[in-house]
Predict the structure.
Amino acid sequence: MNSRRLIPTLLLAISLVALSVSLASPPEQGKGPVWRAQDATPRVRFAIKEFNRLKVSGKVIVNYGLETYGFPEGKSYGLWLWNFGDPEGWLMMKDFSADPAGRLVCEHPIPPEEAEGGKNRSCVFDMEKLSLSTGASVKGVPFRAAILSTDGRVKAFTRAVPLPLQYTQRGCTVSAELASEKADAFLVEGEGFAPGEKVTWTAEMAGDVTEEEAAASENGEFVVALNPGASGKESGKIVFTARGKSCAPMLIFKWGPPALK
């Protein structure tokens, strides 16, 4: 039997197991932190890993387990989530601390009934005994989470795309992630290319063709930003191709309102 406690996010309004704690909406509070993965603290890791999914009323429900390590002791940490299209995160659970191995634990858990409905945001279980559930119906929409220390000195970010918008050819993959709630901007990521190789990419969109070169990282990855909405048009189709030494994956996808259906 799975020992994780399911903590549904605002995207999932139903309780999946008897032990779940329902946090149906973000709390009323001041401005939350913005998403800045480039500010992540070195040697600290926060990861979410899918362990199952199911379909409810036409929406895919994905459950993610949480893994933490490398966090320094002597600090208090909070778990933050970002709604799609919202630049500011909201606090889901707080008062975690790090054990000697750098894993986040809940030294002083509150009863689950106190956390019901977000009445108290203090932690209920150790971080790795929790899971996050999110509903997904649109391809390419990211699910983002972070762990931040209350003093702002330690930051760890993670993200996943429950319904990937991607294509793989000869071991190389290109994937598109929505970067705006209007689906008029995207981040396109390539992976599986040779470390350091120059990848020629082209994007046909809004009646224009853009061709540029990107250098793959030592992990064989690259990221480019596309902004078809800048053309003044409301919607259309994007044909993105990335040509490497041994592969040339092509991804075709819609942008604008049709991409959200």
In short: Confidence is low (pLDDT under 50) at residues 6-25.
